[in-house]
Amino acid sequence: MVAPLFVFIVSAIFYFSQSDSETNQFLVPGSMEVEIEEPGKYYLWHDHVTLFNGTSFSMPKEIPHGVKMEIRGADGEALALKGGLSTSVSSGNHSKVSIGYVEVDKAGWVKVSVSGDFEDRVFSLSKSSFGIFFGAIFGGVVLVGAMGTVGLVLLILGIVELARK
Question: What is the pTM of this model?
């Protein structure tokens, strides 16, 4: 009965340890091209506490006034950066807050450019994983429930068999 909980915890740790945004980090003001393998919703993040190219960054969460952000799709067209509910993610010595998201329709190279007069910061771009996250939680709960039920049935059958002897 403990095994399903162990499987769920190990799966959650593996999920949280896999962060592709750290591989798509770049220093701003500046730009970076990111290869998009599949269309979808991609978030632009402000990695306000992170380690980038051997330098540690610990900045306020807020983006300075006057920052200009532009994202161009594989066809060179500007993609609309949409605001939304700001999401924060922290893991160990890494914290980031979402700035906004873009809908990418085609696979290919996407160019992110950030300009303005402000101190160097680290940004990143990554695919939305909220659906995957909630799917993993739901799947884990179903798995734990199913394995727990099987364990309970086996426990009851064992007690009945023991009582017969």
Answer: 0.69
